[in-house]
Amino acid sequence: MSESDMKKFDVCIVGSCNVDLISYVDRTPKIGETIEGKKFEKGFGGKGANQCVQAAKLGGKVAMIGKLGNDIFGKEYLDSLKQLGINTDHVSITDEAATGVAPIIVDKEGQNSIIVILGANLLLNEDDIQKAEDIIRQSKVVVCQLEIRLETVIKTFEIAKKYSVLSILNPAPMSVKLNQNLIKFADVICPNQTEAEILCDFNVETIDDAKKACKKLHELGCRIVIITMGSQGAVVSNEHDQCEHVEIEKCSSVCDSTGAGDSFVGTLALLMAREEKMSLKEQVKRACRVASQSVEKTGTQTSYPTTDELRFNLFG
Ligand code: RIB
């Protein structure tokens, strides 16, 4: 048995937990306009927890490190993570801020607009990560996104590096230019097209642009680069600077795309933990297929497929 096989967790996620308040509408309202919605759903979201839940639904042994408010949303959220079998030893509760919330609008094409009020997520700090050192050490892969403080992300990656745990940075959301220094802390960076544009300072519209972006992200110090390109699939580049285009099948019916990117990252992290011999291209292809299946149902975590629901074999 290898050292990696002896680890307690496949994936450890350090990131956000938000309660998603989703309104389904025909179209997004204009400024000053009131429109009638068709349906409302409350669900559990947040980029970090979404990735964690997707990996758990696919049978992964996963741990969540995050912060919730001492309120009804926080209590419900913690129960939900526990019910999914996720280790929550380091999901702490604070009296200082409310649980994060995300009002979301989904239009009739299934496209979303999201506002995040991060609340308690922004209180997850370096001390919390230090206390969770053992969980990170016991994981094969650790993942961070950007709905928590940058110092917290850096601390996580420093601990991951200390124990040779593979680290993935999903730089989402990225509203302001990220300190490019952060890139070198992670082994794998996984931006979408827009995030890659902000990181690289040039347009990333075509597959050739994405290949150029991979090169730049390698130069900034990241070993493995994966850029998701929506309907164009993804571009992957490994540590030998071998860049490949991963094509995907067209989604048959898009009902709600909320959290599809997180479904992709959660699945990818699990495959990287469990399928070390699988090529990067194949891991990304399979993660894209899971994410494509997630858009067929409404809601965020509720739309994520379990292994039994998948229309293909994820492992092996
Ligand atoms: O990526 C989707 C997620 O973004 C939602 O669940 C919402 O909470 C925001 O974090």
From TrEMBL:
- List each coiled-coil range: none
What are the alphabetically sorted keywords of the record? Answer: ATP-binding, Carbohydrate metabolism, Cytoplasm, Kinase, Magnesium, Metal-binding, Nucleotide-binding, Nucleus, Potassium, Transferase
A biological process term (GO) from this entry: D-ribose catabolic process
Annotated ranges, domain Carbohydrate kinase PfkB: 10-306
**Pfam families named among the record's database cross-references:** PfkB
Instruction: Tell me which residues this entry annotates as catalytic.
Output: 262 (proton acceptor)
List, in alphabetical order, the Gene Ontology terms for molecular function in this entry.
ATP binding; metal ion binding; ribokinase activity
Leading EC class: transferase
**Gene3D superfamilies per record:** 3.40.1190.20
User: Does the record's keyword annotation contain Metal-binding?
Assistant: yes
Q: How is the cofactor bound?
A: Requires a divalent cation, most likely magnesium in vivo, as an electrophilic catalyst to aid phosphoryl group transfer. It is the chelate of the metal and the nucleotide that is the actual substrate.
Record localization:
Cytoplasm; Nucleus
- Top-level lineage group: Eukaryota
Locate the residues binding K(+): 256, 258, 294, 297, 299, 303
Briefly describe activity regulation: Activated by a monovalent cation that binds near, but not in, the active site. The most likely occupant of the site in vivo is potassium. Ion binding induces a conformational change that may alter substrate affinity.
Pathway given for this chain reads:
Carbohydrate metabolism; D-ribose degradation; D-ribose 5-phosphate from beta-D-ribopyranose: step 2/2
Can you list the GO cellular component terms from the UniProt entry? cytosol; nucleus
Where along the chain is ATP bound? 192, 228-233, 261-262
The family assignment reads: Belongs to the carbohydrate kinase PfkB family. Ribokinase subfamily.
Record function comment: Catalyzes the phosphorylation of ribose at O-5 in a reaction requiring ATP and magnesium. The resulting D-ribose-5-phosphate can then be used either for sythesis of nucleotides, histidine, and tryptophan, or as a component of the pentose phosphate pathway.
Oligomeric state and partners? Homodimer.
Q: Per its record, how is this protein called by name?
A: Ribokinase
